Amino acid sequence: MKAGINRLVDTIEAMKESVAGSEEVAEDIEYEWVEYEVDDDHELEEGEEIEEDALPDTIVSEVEKEQAVMAAEAAELDAWRSELNALLKDREERSAYFKSFLSESEARYQRMLESARAQLAGEDPRSREIADEAAKAAAEDALAAEPEPELIEQPVDLSQYQKPNIELLDKPNISSVTLVTPEALEAQKNALQDAIDSFAIDAHVYDALIGPRITQFRVQPGMGVRVESITALQKNIALALATTNIRMQAPIPGEPFVGIEIGNSNSVPIALRTILQSKAWRECDYDIPLVMGLDIQGKPIITDLAKAPHLLIAGATGSGKSVCMSTLILSMLYKFKPDELELVLIDPKRVEFGLFRQIPHLIHSVVADAKPAVQVLKWIVAEMERRYQVLAEKQVRNIAGYNQKAETEGSKKMPFTVVIIDELADLMMTSKGDAEGALCRIASRPC
After folding, report:
1. What's the rounded Cα separation, in Å, for the pair 23 and 60?
2. How far is Cα 30 from Cα 12, in angstroms, rounded to an integer?
3. What is the reported pLDDT for 25?
């Protein structure tokens, strides 16, 4: 028994020395050697047990402390293990994120490289993206098997077609209309001069130009007078002339005057027949001339759609947008034959282009629904691409150059194609972006 106790004490001493270098400061414990006299020859009787408190209390407490230290170390190891697992999990997440970022960067680099190559080749990268979207949408629409717009039946033989007669248009009746009386004109001129003099501005009302709807007073500023000092009096001049609104043109292009425009008490409608019979229209050499109206001096205003080449008509309800579009269509009908110009009319409201349903210039019937309108616009895009290939083969830049070359060679000319859309905003909202892609393609590469 004594030998066993000695071994236990040696074990405790070794354990104490092993933990002596730890951060915790252990209490100094003095051990006292106690010898017990045990009768080794004593035999246990039946029912006799060894007492559990045979060991000293100091040894038991030391063992308990050692167990507590081991439990603390085990808990610390568990904490380290959990922190290590968390670090490993975070590392895996970061690795996955950087892999995804790397793949996206590579894809972005490839797109930039393709865009740069397209720009060097003279192409518009956005047009390619829009074309891809349009092609994808076209494939989806083809799968949906949507009905195509019905073809227009030509009412006459195009070889015997004659342009409309000017007698179909009403004659202007302005013989009995007095726009502004001389007395009223003189009174307005004096009132305008008094309004300018009341603000001590050195300016002189030079003369007045009477137009069909407005009268323009030309004001000549004095030496050293700023133009801004006259334009700042717009509301005061309107008050002095007792009119709701005036318009200032400061300065008039090409002239040393400031224009002040006032509405006439009487006005006359501007007849399309008057402009079509004018010398400016007859001698016009534009590719696609359009009648826009009359200026302040009554001179015809004619523009070339081929140089525009896109025209957006905007305005409030009732301001005359539909009348303007009808005038543009009529000016083209009086200028071109069906084999010289083709028309595509899109009318979501179904009421604006009803008068033009039977004209031979239409290559499709007037489109009234959003889905057929998108199909027509996509067909226009495909036709535009085909024409560009033809122009490239003939080594010309536009349709006018192609027609000149075709006339010298005796081949068939290429007709112009004009697309007119009423209520464009409504079409773009109902078509869910399909029309926008086709329109961008058409606008980006006109010929």
Report:
1. 23
2. 13
3. 46
